């Protein structure tokens, strides 16, 4: 090891040990011998982990949020009341600079809706209109159903689709692959002359609960109504078709998009002791779909980020840089919260050392996915080792979050909390997204992971080096 770095290592280690004491400033841009430096944080991060896992504060707060306000779709009163509640509680917690930042958000409303099987027998089928979908005429659309497993089958049967309702019975592969049917199914079906479309819910497992989510139209084809049905019913209608039984349904939807509505990102901070203008963001999104209670998607992410700050504060820790918790608005259908933040903070984005988001459930944490330079990756991977005691030490390349995406496109290093997502899509965007599906102890470990990663990055004498890959769109 070269002389210069030994001296720097000693300097940095001294700085780390003296976390509670103001440490001599280290010049920005200095290389960090990260393993020694970061190992020096172990005592402090063990305290953070012990404190975070000593109670169920995050879970209890999530239960209160979801019990008090239920689901929180963009444009809804329940979202705005929940945002007020968060601001009040953050002030009670004594966080710094608690405030809201305005964002105009899409305002889609579901209205009444139903799906009736007419042929081969009468039955009411559970359904959920997809976010952004248009309505049917008041009397609904009654038409034969053409069931296809994928786009190839749709192309093969395009001639039969005109005037029918196309059902995409696409088995779940993984979210990234299967969600394409939800995103683009209405356009694909309309292109072959369908009058409406139905979707096998994007989920690997369920108890006859449909899953909603955003869908998109494009200006090249006529917009048609689009709704999700339960996996069991998609499979049943497919069997009926294979048996040669005519399948006819009546779809009724009152969905419509109102003018954009005002909403807010909510923010609270732990101001940095030495470089308060440099920021580490920890976050999750406050909005949810209008079903279930938005517990794992994504009230849990906000509560984990928020609790990470509270634990630091409780231990009397104040890192060099500011740690800022953000509860985003409008992740589910527009990402206006993330965009508004990017634009409002454009002059300060260079001072954003890192942005972390939790939006994949708060089950047992496994680590983080990171997008940024190789040298920064080497540092955060070292920090990950401090989480080996709770099994959250796997740091992988790639990752971030929808809401932090806009600022990541401007070069801010981004990170997503990874967890055991086995059950996440069982409940995702359905009425079953409730707090009881989450384990308080696992959630507390998510708090510990977020607190350790944010604290060390915020306290390192040297800001995470920039550069490296940026998400698409730059
Ligand atoms: Zn989400």
Key terms for this structure?
16 strands; binds zinc ion; 15 helices; Glucose Oxidase, domain 1; Aminopeptidase; 474 residues; elongated; eight-stranded mixed beta sheet; alpha/beta; single chain
Query: What is the count of helical runs?
Result: 15
Radius of gyration, whole Å: 24 Å
For the terminal residues, how far apart are their CA atoms? 38 Å
Determine the strand fraction and express it as a percent band. 15-25%
Question: What small molecules are bound in this structure?
Answer: zinc ion
Strand order of the largest sheet: 1-10-12-11-13-16-14-15
Number of strand elements? 16
Content-based structural category: alpha/beta
Low-confidence stretches: 1-32
